[in-house]
Design goal:
heterodimer; A: 275 residues; mainly alpha; B: 293 residues; MetI-like fold; 13 helices
Chain lengths: 275, 293
């Protein structure tokens, strides 16, 4: 019996070391980025414990590219997408959860198609549409294809379905209109779902690249990712330390938010995945 | 039979309408337009676009680059999908175990998910760079000669695959973690009392119970393997000699560098067909296999 326990303990400690080793490998790229960004260029590839620290890489990166403008663009992009998504998805989800009308299940099936055919796949045709609408190189054009999110509709529908009918009936008796029912009963009760969907949406669009690259071509519209790609391109001739500093600048807000609200983020992604 | 008033039905449609218009404009219409465009030639200033039947498709079948990127994409999918799913499951089991610093481990596994692929590529570019890069510095200790990882057609796709696995595994871990937390601890207790090894418990109990999650993750992983090309823009631009190019990257190049929208649409149809097959597969599979619980 004790031999058995000993063996279990031994194999557990081996497993723990393997787990920690993998975890170490997983943070290594970020640790390296921090090293390169906070040390002078000559230490970018030389690892000495007492190498001098500096912030000058960040200052240089900030001067060499219009990061402030990129931040503003990304912020505008992410918030506008999120607000419209909340609005459109709430209405559609309410319709799917609580209304009966002919063609409902067909409509729902059509909505789910967007889970497969995401806007990334349709860049060629959507570009043509945007140029016909005269919207090429605008922040609105980056957001438009993502605003009716099948994922959001699905997630909210599942949540709305769990809300008891009695609450809605009670609100009707009180004389609430449809808007008031939605606003005072459904939205508050689905709050965790809004948080979950919101966090997933924010991190998706903060990090999104391909479509914004296609549809923007000036400093006033480019989000951070596209700006960063231009800044970090080997042709730009900027050195390592400065590129990593710029990279960290671009990811900092989301990364810091994640580190501060780690539980919330992880649980939101879980919540969004289970449905 | 509940009586449904016309007003009620009308409200149902009206609530759906705004989202439906957006989906119509940016999902259904472009899908059909892509299909239509693939049967027309690329118009120029002097020669307007005209119906050419399957000409774009025969051109595609003779296009070596198409076959190259299609093959690359298959390899890319065959390696990234199983490895990242296996790692994700292992991570989830570890993070869900008695590990002392499990929240720290969970954080580091999940971290890559929060970083944009572009930023990730900027950082990894350094790892792969010959001589000064971290990989070459480590292998130099063992006397291995320096290697141009991204410049060699034989290793470049492997480099891209490694990054994708690193980026995705922690994301998939979350779904496994959510599923593991719903498994009753008594199951494992009972298995242990019966003298079952951990491996036996994993193989015969845990893994079958996680089947719906595996399927969900699998679908996501397949879609990603056709959708995730951001890192190519920084690391390789599809090179050398298209050795690391993937289908969606090639579509981008054809449409926006070679300005051939007709051929780009033809290639997009192939991508859409792949996604449709996955969707049908999911539908059939979901009905049969997943009702395990």
């Amino acid at each position: 019996m004790t031999a058995n326990i000993q063996r279990r303990k031994f194999s557990f400690s081996i497993e723990s070391s393997a787990a920690y080793f993998l975890a170490f490998l997983w943070v290594l790229p970020l640790v390296y980025a921090l090293w390169a960004a906070f040390h002078p260029a000559e230490y970018a590839t030389r690892f000495e414990l007492f190498a001098p620290l500096t912030l000058s890489n960040f200052a240089t990166a900030w001067e060499q590219a219009p990061f402030a403008r990129y931040f503003l663009n990304t912020f505008l992009l992410v918030t506008s997408i999120l607000l419209v998504q909340f609005f459109l998805c709430t209405l559609a989800a309410y319709s799917f959860a609580r209304f009966d009308f002919p063609g409902k299940s067909l409509a729902f099936g059509l909505v789910l198609i967007q889970l497969m055919i995401m806007p990334e796949v349709l860049i060629v045709e959507n570009y043509t549409t945007m140029s016909n609408l005269g919207l090429v190189d605008s922040i609105l054009a980056i957001g438009l294809p993502y605003m009716a999110s099948a994922f959001g509709i699905f997630l909210l529908r599942q949540t709305f379905k769990t809300i008891p009918h009695e609450l809605e009936d009670a609100a009707k008796i009180e004389g609430c209109s449809l808007w008031q029912i939605l606003w005072k009963v459904y939205v508050p009760l689905a709050r965790p779902t809004y948080v979950a969907f919101g966090l997933v949406s924010i991190s998706y669009h903060w990090n999104n690249f391909l479509w914004p690259l296609v549809i923007t071509n000036s400093v006033t519209t480019r989000p951070l990712t596209v700006g960063l790609a231009i800044f970090g391109a080997p042709e730009s001739g900027v050195d390592w330390s400065i590129i990593t500093a710029g990279t960290l600048l671009a990811v900092a807000p989301l990364l810091v938010a994640f580190l501060l609200f780690q539980r919330q983020f992880v649980q939101s992604f879980m919540h969004a995945g289970i449905k | 039979m509940k009586h449904v008033s016309t007003k009620h039905q009308l409200y149902g449609w009206l609530l759906l309408l705004p989202a439906a218009l957006f989906l119509l404009a940016f999902t259904y219409y472009p899908t059909l337009a892509t299909l239509a465009k693939s049967f027309f030639s690329q118009g120029t200033a002097i020669r307007p676009s005209e119906f050419v039947g399957l000409e774009n498709y025969t051109f595609m079948l003779e296009d070596d680059v198409f076959w190259r990127v299609a093959w690359n994409n298959v390899i890319y999918a065959l390696f990234t999908i199983p490895i990242s799913i296996a790692l994700a499951l292992m991570m989830a089991i570890w993070v869900n175990s008695r590990l002392k610093y499990k929240s720290l481990a969970r954080m580091s596994f999940f971290l890559p998910t929060m970083l944009p692929m572009i930023a990730v590529a900027n950082i990894w570019l350094f790892f792969y760079s010959p001589e000064i890069g971290l990989i070459d510095q480590v292998t130099a200790v063992f006397g291995v000669e320096s290697h141009n990882w991204l410049g060699d057609p034989d290793t470049v796709l492997g480099c891209i695959i490694v990054i994708t696995i690193w980026k995705e595994a922690g994301f998939f871990m979350i779904f496994y973690l959510a599923a593991l937390q719903t498994l009753s601890p008594e199951l494992e207790e009972a298995a242990r009392l019966e003298g079952a090894s951990r491996w036996y418990y994993f193989r015969r109990i845990m893994f079958p119970l996680l089947m719906p999650t595996t399927l969900f993750v699998l679908i996501n992983a397949i879609i990603n393997s056709f959708k995730l090309v951001d890192h190519l823009f920084i690391l390789t631009k599809g090179g050398p000699d298209n050795a690391s190019s993937l289908l969606l990257y090639y579509i981008y190049e054809v449409a926006f560098s070679f300005l051939d929208q007709a051929y780009a649409s033809t290639l997009t149809v192939i991508l859409l067909a792949v996604l449709a097959i996955i969707a049908i597969g999911q539908f059939v599979f979901l009905d049969k296999k997943v009702h395990y619980q």
